[in-house]
Amino acid sequence: MKHTIHPSYGPVVFRDRAANHAFLTRSTATSDKTVVWEDGVTYPVVDVEISDASHPFHTGTARVLDTAGRLERFERRYGRREAR
C-alpha cells in the first residue's frame, strides 16, 4: 500500500453546537481549529450541524408521515392491481 496517497487518519473531536455535545473519534477530517479534550490533549475540532444528540430520529421528535393517506391517494389515481 502506498503511504503517500492516503489521507492521514487520526483522532478528531466532532462538536455539535446546537446540542452542546462533542465526541472524540478517529477520522480523516481535518480542521485548523483545536480543542483541549478531557484527557488534557489538544485535538482538531470539526463543528457539525447535526449529530445523534440533536437529530430528530435519535431524540424522539421525528414526525411520522401519513403513509396511509399517500397509499389511498395513489390507489385512487392509478387503481389497485390484483395479486397474481
Automatic annotation (TrEMBL):
GO biological process: translation
GO cellular component, one term: ribosome
The organism's place on the tree of life at top rank: Bacteria
Molecular-function annotations in GO: structural constituent of ribosome
Keywords carried by this UniProt record: Ribonucleoprotein, Ribosomal protein
UniProt subunit comment: Part of the 50S ribosomal subunit.
Entry similarity comment: Belongs to the bacterial ribosomal protein bL31 family. Type B subfamily.
Protein name: Large ribosomal subunit protein bL31B
Organism: Streptomyces uncialis
Gene: rpmE2
